[in-house]
Specification:
Length: 197
């Protein structure tokens, strides 16, 4: 039996064009599963109940916060795509690969899973410990595909800060979840149907 040597592991930059659709989806779902698991463990270590954090609010106040921020973010994103050179907003083609040929139902599923998992970790767990500013820095850093350009990195930071803001003011995690879902859904649909046309 061959011995495993840690020094033989080689890490190289992956070209997005080398990713198969199956590998991309496996990576996405494993990443989101880990995000959910870490978020739940972090919340439990804070001696808080994740079910209580995800309780659905009694009133629809959170909807206005989620829809309002989503509308603002979509307008700013639209302006950025028309003002800023396209290469400075490049994510390496990952979003195009993820959503370009995806059916609408699967875009909805992806947007929902990402919104719940990431918001539970970042707003539900990390923001409780670090506050919205440091949470937003961490959120921008984990979106590593944007780090090559300062404009999308700054935009991810501001978006995260906005999500933290509406979480505080709405008092419900469902406000940032709704906003995050709508942004990802709309972005995925634009990529999907722009390519189709």
């Amino acid at each position: 039996m061959k011995k495993f040597k840690l020094g033989e592991i080689k890490i190289k930059k992956a070209d997005p064009q080398q990713l198969t659709d199956k590998l991309l989806l496996i990576n996405l779902y494993i990443t989101q599963g880990l995000t959910l698991f870490i978020g739940l463990i972090w919340i439990l270590l804070q001696k808080r109940n994740p079910i209580h954090i995800l309780n659905f609010p009694e009133n629809a106040h959170f909807v206005f916060w989620g829809l309002g921020l989503a509308a603002v973010m979509l307008v700013v994103d639209f302006l950025l795509t028309h003002i800023v050179p396209e290469d400075s907003m490049d994510d390496g083609g990952i979003n195009e690969l993820l959503f370009g040929n995806r059916p609408l139902w699967h875009i909805i599923v992806i947007a929902a899973i990402v919104a719940v998992c990431e918001e539970l970790l970042f707003r539900g767990a990390i923001q409780h410990s670090l506050g919205p500013y440091w949470t937003s820095i961490l959120f921008a850093v984990i979106h590593v595909r944007y780090l090559r350009h300062w404009i999308p990195t700054g935009w991810v930071f501001l978006s995260s800060y906005g999500l933290g803001y509406i979480y505080i003011h709405s008092g419900s995690l469902w406000a940032p979840i709704l906003c995050h879902f709508l942004i990802d859904l709309f972005s995925g649909m634009v990529i999907r149907y722009r390519r189709a046309s």
